[in-house]
Amino acid sequence: MRVIKRIFLILICLVLLLVVGSYLLPGKAVVSRSVSIEAPASAIFPYVNSMQETEKWSPWLSHDPETQLSYSGPEAGVGNTLSWSSEHRQVGSGTQEIIESLPDQTVKTALDFGPRGTASALFQLAPEGDQTQVTWGFESDLGLNPMARWMGLMMDKWVGGDYERGLSNLKELVESNN
User: Fold this and answer.
1) Out of 17-21, 26-30, 38-42, which region has the weakest mean confidence (pLDDT)?
2) What is the pLDDT of residue 122?
3) Which residue of 21, 31, 42, 133 is most buried, as measured by CB atoms within 10 A?
4) CA-CA distance, 124 to 107, in Å (whole number)?
5) Which fold has domain 26-177?
């Protein structure tokens, strides 16, 4: 009986340690990747300022070509919204709406993954001579949920590769059309 009590006590201590330790972890998950594209910002901006245009270079549609997509709002800019639905776990379901758009500079979107939470994404375009540095960033507030904070540590590993593939796709698309 003493052995069972010790094991139980050790398990409780481990759980408490994990919960308390989670509050020492970052409260936000942040992912960011950049690429230089041989084109002016004005040639790149239309591909990030329209959810319809992102379909041409999105890294997630290759995970599930059967993803159901629908659009609402204007064709581009603030209010342009994408809703998607997929059975694939890396794609899932949700909405993405452009909430800020500064021509040839910045596009900010709000993401809603339903029960998986919310996040924001940002595209920044910075001229560099004959090229443009494109930075694609993601940020999600993890709140006080201990499990979400531990999972936040893995966000860069889970999403970073997709961001790299997406930026590579965007680079190829823009440079071949420029």
Assistant:
1) 17-21
2) 97
3) 31
4) 7
5) Alpha-D-Glucose-1,6-Bisphosphate; Chain A, domain 4 (3.30.530)
